[in-house]
Amino acid sequence: MSTHMDEFDDIKPVVTEDELPKGETILWQARPDWWRLALGAYRLKLVGAWFLVFALWRIGVTHYDTGSWAAGFGEAAALLPALGTGVGLIMLLAYLTARATRFTLTNRRLVMRYGVALPAQLNIPLAHIDHASLKLNSDGTGDMPLSLPKKGRPSYFQLWPYARPWKLGSAEPMLRAVPNAAEAARLVTDALLASQGGKRGAMPAARPANADTGRAGFSGARPAAV
What are the CA-CA distances from residue 224 to residues 4, 146, 148, 192 (Å)? Predict the structure, then answer.
């Protein structure tokens, strides 16, 4: 399998036409939505929930010791600077990560360039994508995991934050926080069909299944469970 991971000190996020071989054209490019990246990859909600639980614990303990609710809330308020700092750092990291990332689809491959401190590239020939799926968020962004043959897969830590969650032993790349994800999925579907002989039907435009997320699948020539 020719999918590979290379790291370069001078790699730039954006793939340009002059970098591609003759006959290869760019079909789509995008970078992740930084806010959705903060919520998903960097678990911003989980951090907020942790601080909330800790604050409630401090209120309860202080009230038990002193009998004063005011003292309890005063103790909890002392956590606000730490919460603000933590949230701010997560948001900054998500913004920098999104800024350093580009997803590029050509008529032959899907290229992921990412990395703030250590720029990296994942080059995936379309012929090697077994299956892809779409998790669509209510704001139109979405995540697209890609199922690849086991041989030659990069490691989970090489891919993160663009690794499918919990697939530690058999890492799968995932396009996270893709803006206008339904349209992006349609373009990926069409490219897969064209590169693999049109052996599977194209996925219709995905819509949220509920107020938060929806899920749809689209395949290449070789079906695989997601």
Answer: 21, 10, 9, 14
Name the pTM for this structure: 0.76
Residue 18: φ, ψ to 5°: -70, -10
pLDDT of the residue at 31: 94
Measure CA 208 to chain center: 18
What is the predicted pLDDT for the residue at 174?
A: 94
Domains of the chain, each with CATH number or no CATH: 4-32+102-219 (2.30.29), 40-95 (no CATH)
CB 217 within 8 A of CB 189: no
Cis bond before residue 161 (omega within 30° of 0) = yes
- pLDDT at residue 182, rounded to an integer: 94
Give the position of tokens 């749809």. Answer: 216
d(CA 192, CA 189): 5
Convert 7-29 to b/e letters by CB count within 10 Å (16 or more is b). eeeeeebebeeeebeeeeebbbe
Give, in degrees to the nearest 5, the angle at Cα 196 between 192 and 200: 75
Q: List, for the chain, all residue ranges whose pLDDT scores fall below the cut of 50.
A: 1-9, 200-226
Question: How far, in Å, are 78, 175, 198, 203 from residue 7 at the CA level?
Answer: 43, 18, 33, 34
